[in-house]
Each structure stands twice: as C-alpha cells, then as structure tokens.
Amino acid sequence: MAFPLPNPMRRALQLAKTAADAGEVPVGAVVMQGDTVVAEAANTMRASGDPTDHAELRAIRLAVESLGTGRLDGCDLWVTLEPCAMCAGAIAHARLDRVYYGAPDEKGGAVEHGPRFFGQETCHHRPEIYSGIGQDQAAALLREFFQARRG
After folding, report:
1. Nearest CA among 3, 9, 14, 47 for reference residue 31
2. What is the DSSP letter of 133?
3. Which residues contact 78 (CB under 8 A, 6 or more apart)?
4. Helices and strands, counts by H and E, the chain
5. Active-site option among 40, 56, 82, 106
6. Rounded mean pLDDT of 2-17?
7. Cβ atoms within 10 A of the Cβ of 60, count?
8. How far apart are CA 100 and CA 72, in angstroms?
9. Has residue 77 got a pLDDT over 80?
10. Helix (H) or strand (E) holding 4
11. For residues 140 and 94, what is the distance between their CA atoms, to the nearest angstrom?
12. For 67-71, which contacts have Cβ atoms below 8 Å and span 24 or more sequence positions?
C-alpha cells in the first residue's frame, strides 16, 4: 500500500522541478518548525555563480534570517537529495533536529554514503536521519535532468 508523501517533501520536489526548469540541478529543500514552513529553496548555483548555493544552505540561511537566530533547534530539513559534506556541516552547525531526504547520492552524499558525516566522532551535533522519502520522484527528476544534458 502506497502512502502519500508528506507535504514538506511534496513542496521540496516542486522546488526541485522549478530548479530543473531553470537549468539548475533539481534539488529542493524546506525547513519546517512543527507544521510551519520557515524557509524553502532550490539549487541556484548556476544562476548565482556560487558553488555553495545548494538548496539546503539557501534554506538554512533563509530560516536563520526568518527566525532571527543562529540555530534552528526545533526545526527539520526536508530535501530531495542526500546532503553533501558541505551541507551536512551546515546542518550540524544549525542544530537541525531531523533531516528527511529523498534520493541517495552515492557519489556526493555524506550522510549514508562517503564520509557519513554525522557518524564521525568529531561531529558535534547529529540530527535524526530519515531517508528514502520521495526517493523515486527525486531520483527520476535527477535522472531526467542529467540524461537531457548528456543526450
């Protein structure tokens, strides 16, 4: 029996699709505080010319600004792709409670692949991790995006 995707992941997938339509790698992220959307963002690395403009970092920056605090205790991050090491570091520093992500990233991911950032002894904050939510949809967006560019 299939269950409907939670609203934050549905929104993250919409943001990822918007990113793809703009020529960006299709990744979307939403920061939630309880049932409230605090911030949302998509990748904008090409548009900004900034290699750090990942959806997760943009959403974290916007959430910090919106809440007027340097920490996001009590907040969760929903993102369509397994975060990279840079984003995992930002997640730890922001003190997000939970991370929900869709597609795994065997090459660039740092949560359950690569360095497994949150499992390192030097990691000072470890959010709860929930993977595979919206995985099929997120992976399809990425696959279509890269196939179109290689085609």
Report:
1. 9
2. T
3. 6, 8, 9, 11, 12, 29, 30, 31, 32, 100, 101, 133
4. 5, 5
5. 56
6. 93
7. 25
8. 15
9. yes
10. none
11. 30
12. 67/33, 67/38, 70/94, 71/95
Sheet holding 36-42, edge to edge: 36-42, 28-33, 76-81, 98-103, 128-131
> Residue 100: which H helix or E strand, with range?
strand 98-103
Q: What is the CA radius of gyration of the chain?
A: 14
In this structure, are strands 98-103 and 128-131 parallel, antiparallel, or unpaired? parallel
Mean pLDDT of the chain: 96
pLDDT tier at 1, thresholds 50, 70, 90: very low
**Which structure tokens are listed for 1?**
């029996």
With a CB cutoff of 8 Å and minimum separation 6, the contacts of 1 are none
Asked if residue 76 lies in contact with residue 39, where contact means CB atoms within 8 angstroms, the answer is: no
What angle is formed at CA 91 by the lines to CA 139 and CA 13, rounded to 5 degrees? 30
Q: Name the token pair of 50.
A: 């900034």
Active site residue 56: yes
Q: Please, what is the Cα angle at 106 between 4 and 114, to 5 degrees?
A: 120
C-alpha closest to that of 120 among 85, 70, 81, 94: 85
Q: How many CB atoms lie within 10 A of CB 35?
A: 7
